[in-house]
TrEMBL record:
Keywords: Kinase, Serine/threonine-protein kinase, Transferase. It comes from the Bacteria. The keyword Kinase applies. It comes from Parathermosynechococcus lividus PCC 6715. The keyword Magnesium does not apply. This is Anti-sigma regulatory factor. GO terms for molecular function: protein serine/threonine kinase activity. Transmembrane segments: none annotated. Pfam families: HATPase_c_2. Residues 8-133 form the Histidine kinase/HSP90-like ATPase domain. Gene3D superfamilies: Histidine kinase-like ATPase, C-terminal domain (3.30.565.10).
Length: 140
């Protein structure tokens, strides 16, 4: 199953995003793991608004896609920002990020929640953040 949603670049859209996401929670999937994915989705969306789209109008779209298979949950978040090298940035972050640090905590969090994390230019312009979580067996 693949579903998608397009939102404006506005943090007020976060509630609608999470309501949409939670409609698709598989009945037998552990709640704790789903909440971690919800947190990752919220972090990815807020990063797109705050960083990728910081100089763009609120009308700039952010598209989110959720894909559920028997063995994988995948989230994709498309933005229209400049992009950056996520893996290099993650490698340059200190092992311990101070509470009052300017940034980096969210990216480190994403890397610990999901099994695969990437941020690449999209064929249609902009960038795509991909978050993948492998699951033993997903009934939907």
């Amino acid at each position: 199953m693949v579903v998608s949603l397009t939102l404006s670049s506005d943090l007020n859209e976060l509630e609608a995003l999470l309501e949409w996401f939670n409609r698709y929670q598989p009945p037998l999937f552990p709640l704790e793991e789903w909440l971690k994915l919800e947190l990752a989705l919220a972090e990815g969306f807020t990063n797109a608004v705050r960083h990728a789209h910081r100089d763009r109008p609120k009308e700039t779209p952010i598209r989110v896609e959720l894909s559920l298979t028997q063995t994988m949950i995948e989230l994709r978040i498309w933005d229209q920002g400049q992009g950056f090298d996520l893996m290099t940035h993650l490698q340059q972050l200190p092992a311990q990020i101070a509470v009052d640090a300017e940034g980096g905590r969210g990216l480190r969090l994403l890397a610990t929640i999901v099994d695969e994390l990437s941020y690449r230019p999209s064929e249609t312009g902009g960038n795509c953040l991909t978050l993948r979580k492998r699951v033993a067996h997903l009934a939907h």
